[in-house]
Amino acid sequence: MTLYGLRSAAAALTFTLLFGAAAQASAPQQKSQAPGYYRMMLGDIEITTLSDGTFQLEASKLLTNVTSKQLESALLRSFLKDSLETSVDAFLINTGSKLVLVDSGAGVLFGPTVGKLQANLKAAGYRPEQIDEIYITHMHGDHIGGLLVDGKFAFPNAIVRAAQQEADFWLSKSNMDAAPKEAKDAYQAAMTMIAPYQAAGKFKPFNGDTELVPGVRAVAAPGHTAGHTVYVVESKGQKLVLWGDLMHVAAVQFPNPAVTIRFDTDSAAATAQRKKLFAEAAAQGEWVGAAHLPFPGIGHLRAVGSGYVFVPVNYSALH
Ligand SMILES: [Zn+2]
User: Fold this and answer.
1) For 36-48, what is each residue's pLDDT tens digit?
2) Distance from the alpha carbon of residue 15 to the mean position of ligand 1, in angstroms
3) Alpha carbon distance 223, 167 (integer Å)
């Protein structure tokens, strides 16, 4: 290269550094996240976590059986502060012959930061009318709010299934009448979301531990609500347990599973279920997924001292 050539290359580099850098800095920030779906295979079964978005959870107002000092230090250990941005996750299971959705997100019940399940379902390559069955872990609004869109079936070909005890509790007018004023909305939401499916013969409750489709079974885990259910997915020796609302705040309840939440119908039973299923997950090394774990909400548990550490799924792009 000639001296002239070297000089012009240096000049070009200087130009790029000065003006190239300036051009980058002037690009507008995008202020949006990647589409909220995450895929993994469990044996022959395809699992897709669908994000419904996030909401702010005021841990200090909602968590119970924990002092404010304990709460603050548990959050700080995870570099978090109250209130917490909390994921709302649902899980799509493609067994190869059936397409099953576990929980439906919040729909319009919890404001604009959630209710994104439909968009993320489509981003994940599926259409709402392809879903055959929807299994509800429990009938709180952030799990059933997505069943209807503008009063119509959000999943027009799906049947909805939940534990009979859950239906008996939330769809009971006398339970609603007896509930304190601030709790009545939860009953009303359950009735609003489930009633059209009932009227169309598309709501089919089950009793106790039941295989619902090959590879997916319901296991009763009452406590958070009367008919709270976890769903176990198994294929080729691999197992994923979908916990629903067995826990809400990872940073606090994994180190101390005795911490409870105000929404529990029966806190003592909820704690017992959490301790039992945490211990099982750590002992067996099975996959777990939960509605309010940070997206994609899937991982493993390791026992440490009297508590646990959650190990999120290692990101995979091989699908
Ligand atoms: Zn929930």
Assistant:
1) 999 999 999 999 9
2) 54
3) 15
Tell me the CA–centroid distance for residue 291 and ligand 1, in Å: 6
Report the DSSP beta bridge partners of residue 241.
232, 288
Please give the distance, rounded to the nearest whole angstrom, from the Cα atom of residue 33 to the centre of ligand 1: 22
- Separation of 87 CA from ligand 1 center, angstroms? 9
CA of 142 to the centre of ligand 1 (A): 5
d(CA 76, CA 156): 44
CA of 246 to the centre of ligand 1 (A): 9
CB 227 within 8 Å of CB 167: yes
Q: Please tell me the pTM assigned to this model.
A: 0.91
User: Beta 298-304 vs 307-312: how paired, if at all?
Assistant: antiparallel
Cα(129) to ligand 1 centroid in Å equals: 24
**8 Å CB contact between 211 and 225:** no
Judge whether 229 and 206 are in contact, CB under 8 Å.
no
Ligand 1 mean position to 7 CA, how many Å?
A: 64
Average of pLDDT values for 112-127? 98
For 99, the enclosing helix (H) or strand (E) is strand 99-102
Q: What is the pLDDT of residue 318?
A: 84
Residue 5, pLDDT > 60, answer: no
**Under 8 Å CB-to-CB from 300, ≥6 apart: which residues?**
281, 285, 286, 287, 288, 310, 311
